[in-house]
Structures are given as C-alpha cells and as structure tokens.
Amino acid sequence: TKSRARGYCTAFEPEMDARYVEQQKLKADLRDAVENKRLHVDYQPMYKPDGSRIECCEALARWIHPEKGTIPPNVFIQIAEEMGIISGITEFVVERACRDCTTWPNHMSVSVNLSVQDLRNADIVAIVCAALEKSGLDPARLHLEVTESSIMDELVTVRAILADLRSRGITIAIDDFGTGFSSLSYLDSLPVDIVKIDRSFVRNIGEDSRRFKLLRGTVNLSRELGLKIVIEGVETKDQLALINAHRCADYIQGYVFSMPVATEAVIVLSDALRRK
Ligand code: C2E
Ligand code: CA
Ligand code: CA
Ligand code: CA
C-alpha cells in the first residue's frame, strides 16, 4: 500500500486506517485489562511420565476481550511487550500463581513464564519476592520459565538475575529448548535446573526419525549436566509410549494428559489420581 499511498492523499486510506484504529483500541483495552487485573490464569499440569501424579503446573495467562472474546496469549503478550507493559502481566500472573499454588497439594509446584523484558530489569526479583511473601508460598514450589533466546540476549544481566532468583530457592527452567541458536554447551554455565524441550521435537517422531535422535541426544546431555527434563506438547499415546520406552522425560506436559485448566480443576485432577 505504500507505493499506492504515495500518489494519493495518505490521510484517507480507509483499510489501513481501520486496521490502525482497531490496533490502537486493542492496545488501550489491554492496558485497561492489565491495570484493572481483568486477566485470568489457567494451569497446565506436568505429569510424572507414567501419569500417576501431577508434579507442577504451568501458569498460562488468559485474556477474554469483552467484544472479541479470547485473544491468544502469544498475541497479547507480544503487544504488551511492544507497549512496555509486560511486567504488569508478569506481576499479575506470578501473584495469582503463587496464591493458587497454596491451595494445591503440597508436593505440587507452579511454573510462571518470564518475558525477555522481565529479564532486562532487576525489578523482577522484587516482583517475584513480593508475590512469594504475600502468598506465603515456599519458594521451593515456584518455578520460572525463561526462553532460550531471552537468555542469549543479554547474557551477563540475565545470568545475574537468574542466579539471584535461584539463590532464593526458586527453580529455573529453560523454555522452548531447541528452537533457538544456543548450543548445549551454554547450559552448563547457566543457573538453571530444568530444560523444557519444545514441542517441535515431538511432532511426527518415530523411532528412527532424525528429530527423535536429536531429542534423545539433548536429553542425555542435559541429564549428564544434572538437569531435569520436561517434554512439552505430547499429544498422543504413541508419542508418550516412545518417549517412555527411551526414558526421555522426567515430566510430561501435553494434551495426552491434560489441556490447561482452571485452578479448581487442578485440584480435581490431582485428587482423582490419588484415589486411583
Ligand atoms: P509456552 O510457554 O510454550 O506454553 C505452552 C503452550 O503450548 C500453551 O499455549 C499450551 O496450551 C500449549 N500446549 C500445551 N500442550 C500442548 C499440546 O499437546 N499440543 C499443542 N499443540 N499445544 C500444547 P498457550 O496457552 O496458547 O500459550 C502460548 C504462549 O504464550 C506460551 O507458550 C508462552 O510463550 C506465552 N505465554 C502464556 N502465558 C504467559 C505469561 O503469563 N507470560 C509470558 N511472558 N508469556 C506467556
Ligand atoms: Ca512456558
Ligand atoms: Ca521445586
Ligand atoms: Ca514452551
């Protein structure tokens, strides 16, 4: 539209105009929702590989727009990052997650996603500590997920912040592992405890597929380094059987066991397992 616009009056480009107005409205609505805490949090359980127990749940932010309905988190998280208001979402989610976790069985932890922007700002330590204090949750029950690419971004700052959080008893997980450019050799120098292997490694896996060989290699090396392994996006019984036949995972997260659910449902799911 740029070249077309050049010859005409750029102020009246109806299509572009409408899209721009809509985007501005969405941003204003998001700001409003964050300020007034009109977001929700769902939780997706991570199971022991045999499915006998829920060990941890990942907190996933939800925004139900009054007119547009559910907006996917990867959409509104990115907008929030562009607007510079992501720390408001992180604060909301970590607070809610810590509080909800105190209502779950004691052996269960909760895992909260941090954005790349959270890791550039040492305020994140105060935000997380405030949520722990307010809820009274044992820091050993809080996990924080950081993506591989966000760690590589500003290695020195990020490493210091993660080391600080970890020294308080919080567990650090690397999210979406295998999608970025970091080599496994970095893992050893980072203050992390858990590796979450991205679901792209699970899609279309077969015993002899190259993807599965990559997955097994990553798992073996991570274990050598003393890290625990979560495999994400496990959808089918066949995928689960293959992963378990090779003892690839310490925890499994995916539709094969459960979709993200409300906090009340976490308790129901875990009670049902205990009664088995
Ligand atoms: P993620 O951290 O990789 O979260 C896992 C996503 O995979 C979730 O999507 C979950 O519903 C989906 N998923 C789980 N199991 C399966 C499966 O078996 N198959 C498939 N195809 N998908 C599965 P969701 O909730 O839409 O979240 C998308 C992304 O939005 C998250 O990816 C994360 O990057 C971001 N996000 C969500 N909540 C937050 C938050 O509170 N803070 C930040 N910074 N990012 C968040
Ligand atoms: Ca995550
Ligand atoms: Ca823990
Ligand atoms: Ca992930």
UniProtKB/TrEMBL annotation:
Residues of the EAL domain? 23-274
> What protein am I looking at?
EAL domain-containing protein
Q: Organism source for this protein?
A: Ferirhizobium litorale
